[in-house]
Amino acid sequence: MILTNLFKKQWILGCIAGAGMLTAGTGQASAVELDLFKTLSVDSVFGNECGDACGDTCGDTCTSTGCGSLFGGGDSGIDVGGWIQAGGQSDRETRFDLNFNDNNSRLVLNQSWLYAEKVADGSSGTDFGFRIDAMYGSDADDTQAFGNPAGSWDFDNGFDHGIYGFAIPQLYAEVASGDWSVKIGHFYTLVGYEVVTAPGNFFYSHAYTMFNNEPFTHTGALATYSASDNVDIYGGWTSGWDTGFDRLNGGSSFLGGASVGLGDNVTATAIITAGDLGLRGEGWSSSLVLDVVLTDDLNYVFQMDTVNTDAGGDAQLAINQYLFYTINDKLSAGLRGEWWKTTNFNSNTSGDFLSDNSQSVGICEVTAGLNIKPLLETDCNGNTSGDWLTIRPEVRHDWSTGGDFIDGEAQINYTTFGTDVIITF
């Protein structure tokens, strides 16, 4: 275990150093960077190994990486961590680059992510918390507050450098008391199933639904009421879709819904946005997600999203289905099937979509992939944990029906192969 942890720690520090060299566009680290990494002892950053003294010395802070966590933590209630995600995919046959991993036939640093948070716990009275996320990588332009006016927060504000850039997707304060909690600031959306953060998804690639039918972030205030162990109710105000401490065209909208446990094995989550969505105009969106545990090893997810706004008659409907099977502790298999239909949606600003605002198109995709966790650790109590390394190979086929694309092809029909590696810390 000690050798495995040491290997992990040296690997992560090496990856961070390599990311810094990649950012600088040089093959050498600066003298300052080298001095920094020389002064960082492994134990001072990651904590000591538990060894035989876990129970007496570590107490509740004993983890699979030792007594404590990255950058300390312990009893302070503040959690600091992150991940590094890098990957690549084969060429697409059509210029339809409306997903996060849209750099063909090259290895890219998708996300180099750091966060710090303290969760507000209202179980014993009033408590306060916060969270901040900052990232660098090729996903930055899809993670920034692009629903802002240009030059506001992290959007079109000197944060981009070629295919790479910086983003600050979350910065909020939280207060909780009893069954209530409220976030105020810049936070991730509740809408949909797939998320921006790489470790939160099974697949490397994203669904069209996630990219086109859903916001990624909001700025505003969001309240959560835990009505029971199985029911959470959400409601709040936001300044539209994908905004960061600003709003576009007077954006002002409702974000809310509920998550309900239907027995022991089914959870239904329904979320809506309505009002002036800013970048997407006046209108509404809805998302329904059913998460069904079929067996101990088999999980099924159904999702349906709809969007209807006055931005050029923008109307979209999508149905996604997922199936996940746990083969063993180190290997899981997943399947995603998607049908996405859009009417009168034009995205010429991206240069990759429909040729005019009078078109309608249906797009389908099927993705099959694996989650491989080759290195597992055992904590001081003999429990298996330490999913810090994940490899996600996948094969995906996309095809369309109807619609004229800017590149002159009436339909798309292609297969791509991709894989990425995620290291969490």
| Helix count from the secondary structure assignment | 6
The SSE order reads HHHHEEEEEHEEEHEEEEEEEEEEEEEE
In order across it, which strands form the biggest sheet? 3-4-5-7-8-9-10-11-12-13-14-15-16-17-21-22
Distance between the termini: 17 Å
Low-confidence stretches at least 5 residues in length (pLDDT < 50)?
A: 19-69, 347-358
Q: For the report, how would you describe the main beta sheet? A: 16 strands, antiparallel, barrel
Tell me, what's the shape? globular
The proportion of residues forming helix, as a percent range, comes to 10-25%
Q: What is the arithmetic mean of pLDDT?
A: 81
Q: Give the amount of beta strand, in percent.
A: over 45%
Calculate Rg over CA atoms: 22 Å
The secondary structure category is mainly beta
Number of strands: 22
What does this structure look like?
By secondary structure, the protein is mostly beta strands. The protein contains six helices and 22 strands. The strands form three sheets. Strands 3-4-5-7-8-9-10-11-12-13-14-15-16-17-21-22 form a 16-stranded antiparallel beta barrel. It has a two-stranded antiparallel sheet with strand order 1-2. The chain has a two-stranded antiparallel sheet with strand order 18-19. About 15% of the residues have low confidence.
